[in-house]
Amino acid sequence: MIDMLYSEWLIISILSINFLVLYKINNSNKKVVISLSKNLKKNLREIYKKLELSHLSLEKTNLSISYIECYIKNEFEKEELDKLDRILGNTDENEYKKKMRSCNTKIDMYNGRIEDLEEELKTYELERELRIDDLVFRKYAKKYS
């Protein structure tokens, strides 16, 4: 009977220790998941900005190509277009010049947005470097103090 009581207490104590260990593991896992989700959110924001930057650069390149095409067409067909405009009495710009002006305006807008995104990415990189430097400083301060 005493052996039975001793074994029951032993099982209860092992179960309570097991419960305590599982509780601590669960709490530490929650902390790890929360910190990972915060880091992932920051990294996803940076990845999104880089994707947007590459997309805008691609759009700017396409507009530059369109601008060059319109410029070349305008140069080759300049005399005929001027004659046609004089015959029709049009004093406005021809269609190629309108496209060129439109492309120039869009290219300037994309350039402005690209500069803004590059500044934001530099800010994110500086923030990350400061976080890393702060972590390293704290580790060395704990180690050598």
Provide tags for this entry:
single chain, 145 residues, mainly alpha, 0% strand
Written description of the protein model:
The protein has helices at about 1-75, 80-90, 95-145. It is an all-alpha fold and about 140 residues long. The two termini are about 55 Å apart. The protein has one domain. Helix 1 runs antiparallel to helix 3 (about 95-145). The mean pLDDT is about 75. The protein has three helices and no strands.
Give the helix/strand layout.
Layout: H1 2-76, H2 78-88, H3 95-144
Helix pairs in contact: 1-3
Number of helices: 3
Low-confidence stretches: none
Describe the main β-sheet briefly: none
Number of strands: 0
Instruction: Give the number of domains.
Output: 1
Q: What fraction strand?
A: under 5%
Instruction: Classify the helix fraction into a percent range.
Output: over 70%
Q: How large, in whole angstroms, is the Cα Rg?
A: 34 Å
Form type: rod-shaped
Q: Give the oligomeric state of the chains in this entry, treating copies of one chain as homo and distinct chains as hetero.
A: single chain
Q: Output mean pLDDT.
A: 77
SSE-based structural type: mainly alpha
Our measurement of the CA-to-CA distance between the termini, rounded to an integer number of angstroms, reads: 56 Å
User: H/E series, N to C?
Assistant: HHH
